[in-house]
C-alpha cells in the first residue's frame, strides 16, 4: 500500500486579475481584431486571477525587467534571461514548499525521507531542484533523488507512480514529491492564436506530496493510491506540444485539444476501471487537471458528471489558472480538505499533456 500523507501547495505572492492581464496583453498589439480576440479568450477562460513570479506588470515595477525594460519599453526576453528568473525563483520556492510539506505532515520527520522526486518543465539548472530539497531539509546525501523534466501537465502522475512503487518495495520508504512550474516566464508577445490561448491560462505554482507505505495518523486526512493508467490519443499529437526557442518556449495549444479529450475520455475511463471492484459511478470526486475551461466542460459532458463532482477543478482554475504539473495536486488537496469528503470516498484524478498523453489515477480518501 502507498498513501499520500499530506499535500502542500504554494504560489508566488504576486497575482494578476484576469481582466488586468487581458488589458496588458491586448495593449501590445496594433490589431483591433487581435485585441478583440484576446479579450474574448480571457473573458471566457473561467479564470479570475493567476499568480506569477513576474512583477513587470505591476504599477511602478518596470525595473524588474523581464518583459518591460527600464525605459518602459516592452521587450521579448531571451530563453537565457527567462531561465535566469526560473533559477532565481526556484531557489526560493522549492526550499519553502519542501519545509512546509514536512512541517505540516504529522508523524513524518525530514530524517524519515528516503526518496526525493522533483518535477518541472518550465526551467533547467544543475545541480538542480532535487539538491535544493536535500539542502533545505538537511537530508542525508544518500537519499535517492530523481528529477522528471519537460514532461508537461501530466508529470505529477509519473512522480506519484514512482513514489508508490518505492513504497511497495520498501515499507519504510518515505517519498517527497515536489512539483514547481513557472509558466508565466514563457509568455509570448505574439498574435498567433496558440500564444494567445497559452498566455491566457498558464500560471505559476508549486505543490508537494508526502508519500509513505503507512496510513495517515489519527485525525489526519490523506489518500490511498490504488490504480494508475496511462494512454495516448495520437490524433492530438500536433495539438499540444512545445519546443525551446531563442525567446522562451514555443507552445502549440490548439482549440481541438478539448474536443479530442472529450471524444475519447469515456472509453479511457472504462479501461481504467476494467478488472476493478470500483466502477465510474462509484467515484465521488473527479480531480481533473484544469487545462482550460473547455476541457472541463467536455469531460463533464462526456462522463455525464454532476457539477459538484468537478467543482474543485473549476475552483482551482478560477483561483490559480493552469500551473502545469502542480495543478492536479492543488485539485486533490481541495477535495481532501473539503469536510464533505468522507473516509473511503473514491476520487479519480486525470491530467493531459503532449503526445496527447492522458494520465489517470484512482485514489481513496483516508479520513483517520
What radius of gyration results from the CA coordinates?
20 Å
- What is the beta-strand fraction? 25-35%
CATH superfamily of one domain: Thiolase/Chalcone synthase
CATH class group of one domain: Alpha Beta
Give the ordered list of helices and strands: EEHHEHEHEHEHEEEEHEHHHEE
Write down the overall mean pLDDT: 93
Record field, number of beta strands: 13
**Largest sheet features:** 9 strands, mixed
Ends apart, CA distance between termini? 16 Å
CATH architecture of one domain: 3-Layer(aba) Sandwich
What are the low-pLDDT stretches, counting only 5+ consecutive residues below 50? none
Spatial order of the strands in the main sheet? 5-4-6-7-1-8-13-12-11
Give the CA-based shape: globular
- Based on secondary structure, the structural category is alpha+beta
Which bin fits the share of residues in helices?
25-40%
CATH topology of one domain: Peroxisomal Thiolase, Chain A, domain 1
Q: With helices defined by DSSP (H or I, 4 residues minimum), what is the helix count?
A: 10
Short précis:
The chain is of the alpha+beta class.
Q: What can you see in these coordinates?
A:
The longest helix is centred in the N-terminal third of the chain and has 25 residues, at 79-103. It contains ten helices and 13 strands. The mean pLDDT is 93. Strand 9 and strand 10 form a beta hairpin. By secondary structure, it is α+β, with helices and mostly antiparallel strands. The protein has a domain at 221-367: Thiolase/Chalcone synthase (Peroxisomal Thiolase, Chain A, domain 1).
